[in-house]
Amino acid sequence: PVSDLLQGIIGFLPKIIVAIIIVVLAAAIAAGAKGLIQNTLGGLSYGKALGNIVAVFILFLGVTAALNQIEVATTVTTPILIAVLAIIAGVIIVGAGGGLIKPMQQRWEAILTKAEEEAPKIQQEAQNAPSVTEQAKRAADQAKQAAPATTARRPR
Questions:
Q1: In the prediction, which pLDDT does 104 show?
Q2: Where are the domains of the chain?
Q3: In angstroms, rounded to a whole number, what is the distance separating the alpha carbons of residues 1 and 16?
């Protein structure tokens, strides 16, 4: 009775710890990817939106993995994950296959023309953007400035 309850709680703790680590890592990766994309493509109209989309997708994957780790709502999260991936694949398949239809050919030509116009802008934005190392150093400096002074020694 009570020992079974304690044993269940003790057995569940490692799963919770791993789930928390998964979410924290996913959030860190999402923030890094978002910052990298926004800093690299910030001068373009869609740079910020693309960074946000990537960050939300990475967080979604992290939360799904964490919920699966603690075995909560796996009957819901797994089909949702499969559905999201199927939607992405379907959009790509329909978009590529739609190029065989006359109206879609005109749209694809317009998209490709726009992409050709944007390519030099993207290249220029990427060249003018600070490198990943510089961005990491800047983020570390900002974190150091934001953190309270913890280096002061206590008297013995």
A1: 72
A2: 10-72, 74-123
A3: 22
